[in-house]
Amino acid sequence: MKKIITLSALIIALLLSLFFVSCGSKNDTTDVTTGKNADDTSPAMADEVRILGLKGPTGMGLATVINDSGNDPDSRYKVTVMNSPDLVKAEVLLGKYDIAALPTNVAAALYNSGKADFKIAAVNTLGVLYILENGNTVTDINSLKGKTIYATGGGSTPEYILRYILSENGIDPDKDVTLDFSFTEHSELAAYIAGGANIIAMLPEPNVTTTLMSNPEIRVALDITEEWGKVSDSDVMQGCIVVRSEFAEKYPEQLAMFLDDYRASIEYVNEHPDEASVMIANAGIIPKAEIAKSAIERCNIVYVEGTEMSDKLSDFFEVLYDADPSSVGGKLPDNDIFLRR
User: Fold this and answer.
1) For residue 27, is pLDDT > 70?
2) Contact indicator for 329, 110 with CB cutoff of 8 Å
3) What is each CA distance from 58 to 26, 85, 125, 271, 339, in whole angstroms?
4) CB of 262 within 8 A of CB of 61?
5) Tens digits of per-residue pLDDT, 67-101?
């Protein structure tokens, strides 16, 4: 009887030891690359998502992302709003970002340089350029003949867009009009047109709104995006969101969550300008809510991704390339520039 009890005790002890070894092995199996338990099926998540936004229309779509993350201590989004595309470009080259806003042609040129590894995830801004006049002589594109058009953005997308529209309307941009790109700051040109009669200028939003507010004699004479549509099958696509390739590969679910949040933010900005304009001003994207509210309608803030994005953006890149190959980095970007999800 004693031997039977002893044998039973040994069997129980052996079973218990196997149980604890099994549990120990299960709990100790950890993926050294992610720090996750092997049985943890939750997606890998970065502790922080570094997002670079831009002041102006390209950054306005981030309004609720910035607002919500600022009010949520557990938010993983860290959004930095920068003054110029050149500053964002520098950060992208250094890899100090996960997601960033860039002008589309800058993204193409940077991609073609081979110095930064990223994908274009979505287009966020269409055309934001307008012809303003302190006078009443401009009624259509043809009425620009013989005129001087002041503008900023010489040697970049605004100039290529304007030249393309003029050329497609039979107007030689080097002979039939005078293009003056001597102004380097939008605010300087806005002040210039506000101060004198019969001045014609091409400006982007939100400078269009601030100029209209400064002088009731100034009017929007032409919508450049509308004029582009009359002569081209492509769309003007001026702003986009890029994602660092390593981030996209390592955290696809987290990227998808951000893009869904971003799409929702853009929809909110367009549908609720009163509330969104306050968020935009608070984030420092536009200096005043009043300006932001008036500008939203003309900023053409959108969310375009997938095949629609790649098709339309490829067409736009072709137009820029034909105007000046250096505008997109000397060659057309290959399809690997686009994020597929």
Assistant:
1) no
2) yes
3) 48, 10, 6, 17, 19
4) yes
5) 999 888 889 999 999 998 999 999 999 999 999 99
Let me know the angle formed at the C-alpha of 204 by 200 and 206, rounded to the nearest 5 degrees. 115
CATH topology of domain 49-126+236-337: D-Maltodextrin-Binding Protein; domain 2 (3.40.190)
SS3 label, residue 332: coil
Nearby residues of 162 by Cβ (< 8 Å), 6 or more positions away: 129, 149, 151, 173, 179, 202, 224
CA angle 157, 142, 155 (to 5 degrees): 20
Q: Where in the chain is the domain with CATH 3.40.190.10?
A: 49-126+236-337, 129-231
120: left (phi over 0), alpha (psi -120 to 50) or beta: beta
The pTM for the full model equals 0.83
CATH class label, 129-231: alpha beta
Burial 228-248 (b: 16+ CB within 10 A, else e): beeebebbbbbbbbbbbeebb
pLDDT in tens, 160-186: 999 999 999 999 999 999 999 988 888
